[in-house]
Amino acid sequence: MAFRHKSAAQNSPDEINESNERLEFLGDAILGTIVAEHLFSTFPYEDEGFLTKLRSKVVSRQHLNSIARKMGIPQMMNMNTINFAGSSIYGNAFEALVGSVYLDQGYKKTKKFILDRFFGLYVDLHELETVETDFKSRLTEWSQKEKQELEFRVIQDPQHSQDRGFHIGVFVGKALMAQASHNSKKRAEQMAAEKAWNAITQQV
After folding, report:
1. Is 43 exposed, middle or buried (0-12, 13-18, 19+ CB in 10 A)?
2. Which of 45, 105, 113, 117 has the largest count of CB atoms under 10 Å?
3. In the predicted model, is pLDDT for residue 13 greater than 90?
4. For this structure, is 28 an active site residue?
5. Which member of 28, 116, 134, 146 is catalytic?
6. Over the stretch 42-87, which tens digit does the pLDDT of each residue have?
7. Active-site hit among 21, 24, 95, 189
């Protein structure tokens, strides 16, 4: 179930879509908790701002997608779509995997899995410290420098979207530069900001 994309899912008799999206929702929360706990222990003298920023880098879409590829998750995916441009399919599947481990084995075993297989093999915290992933802040600084009007707008909320996520659009002036969706509004904003930033830098 963790590797079943919604494009390959079927509805169960009680009309529940049997994709990995519910597991992704759970795994996102569990992963965030374990990462926060690990960073809290690893950096005992750093303040809240440092820990928050580093946690965001660890669980960023770009970082999770990269790790999912290294783990071989793309080869295990069950999906019927070929549109992967700017996709978070593999990072989402990793979060779904975390959710499934939690349901099968409980919190203690899930924490061991994250520490041994995630941090132990794929995450370099000291390298991540130097990586800038706050694309929303980058866009804000750019808009102020270039005197451009910047707005993050909710295009669809969870109650009205098919994927039950927040659909966030990044508008520069009146033009829609990019959009993204996620069950977390803040995450959707960062995903949309990253796409907009990439579009702007490609124009330069």
Report:
1. middle
2. 113
3. no
4. yes
5. 28
6. 999 999 888 988 998 899 888 899 999 999 998 998 888 655 544 6
7. 95
